[in-house]
Specification:
Elements lengths: L2 H8 L3 H19 L18 E2 L5 E2 L10 H37 L1 H15 L3 H9 L6 H28 L2 H8 L4 H37 L11 H7 L9 H30 L6
Antiparallel strand pairs: 1-2
Helix pairs in contact: 1-10, 2-3, 2-10, 3-4, 3-6, 3-8, 3-10, 4-6, 5-6, 6-8, 7-8, 8-9, 8-10, 9-10
Length: 282
């Protein structure tokens, strides 16, 4: 690793720090602050941030229309939204990589067919596909992960196919095949290492899009079950109270914005680190 790239590792940008802080809050927060989605306290409903209820309980971020604390909901919703986003991105990356490498290695009609399927999917807005699929499956975390992964695999498959086609033309790949190395070993040792750096960059962008899509599904009531808080569902719960309780929808919306921006800055930082470390990221 060069000196310039190591300096980037030692001095990560603010976006990376924000993303790490929000991940830590999402992981640790729900263990510290309990949340019961079935709880109702009419005496504490629609309290503004930094307010006390009649019993003297302090609500840092206020309460919703049922008297539930917004801090608790946002922390638990952060865990759900980030879990879904990361899991769906990894699943889409796995499927897209397998499909793209297979297409690039086989070539011919197999490659043409696989890429035409990917092109057809990419011709439709991914959120439209997600809404269509989510409408036919029962609401659950696993269902949302699967739906979002299905909508995002095609872009990764195109990347994997392009990298595979380029790498297969290299002399070291031809030499490995000539020496009789099995194809799976050649792909693992010669093709996939060329895919790691660009795949990391693409997955950071895909993670942002997946989190936004998950929030949209939650807002439409097609994401997680009502008893499982997510940022999109919390925003939907407060859409009828924007005039007198703006914090219900605004605070989780700010959380989504901060996470998406932080992921984008992190992806740009990782691209510069990998590029200065000698990896090909284009």
């Amino acid at each position: 690793m060069t000196g310039s790239s190591s300096s980037l590792w030692r001095k990560p940008p603010l976006g990376v720090i924000i993303l790490i802080a929000m991940i830590l809050l999402a992981v640790i927060g729900p263990f510290v602050v309990a949340f019961n989605p079935a709880s109702v306290d009419t005496s504490s409903r629609l309290l503004a941030p930094f307010s006390y209820n009649r019993n003297g309980t302090f609500f840092l971020l206020g309460t919703d229309q049922l008297g539930r604390g917004m801090l608790e909901q946002i922390l638990h919703g952060a865990r759900i939204s980030l879990l879904i986003g990361v899991a769906a991105a990894l699943l889409a990356g796995l499927v897209g990589t397998l499909v793209g490498v297979t297409a690039g290695w086989l070539g011919g009609r197999s490659e043409a067919f696989i890429m035409r399927v990917a092109d057809v999917q990419l011709s439709f807005p991914s959120i439209l596909i997600a809404v269509f699929l989510a409408a036919f499956v029962p609401p659950s975390i696993l269902a949302v992960i699967a739906v979002l992964a299905i909508t995002r695999w095609a872009q990764i498959a195109r990347l994997a196919r392009a990298v595979t086609v380029k790498a297969r033309q290299q002399s070291y790949v031809e030499a490995a095949l000539t020496l009789g190395f099995p194809v799976p070993k050649v792909i693992w040792s010669c093709i996939l290492p060329n895919l790691v750096a660009p795949l990391i960059i693409v997955l950071t962008a895909e993670l942002s899009l997946i989190i936004l899509a998950e929030s949209a599904l939650g807002y439409l009531g097609l994401g997680t079950p009502p008893t499982v808080p997510s940022w999109g569902r919390i925003i939907a719960n407060g859409k009828n109270y924007l005039d007198n309780a703006w914090w219900i929808s605004t605070l989780p919306g700010l959380g989504i914005g901060f996470v998406v921006i932080a992921i984008g800055l992190t992806g740009d930082w990782m691209r510069r680190v990998l590029a200065r470390g000698g990896f090909e990221v284009n």
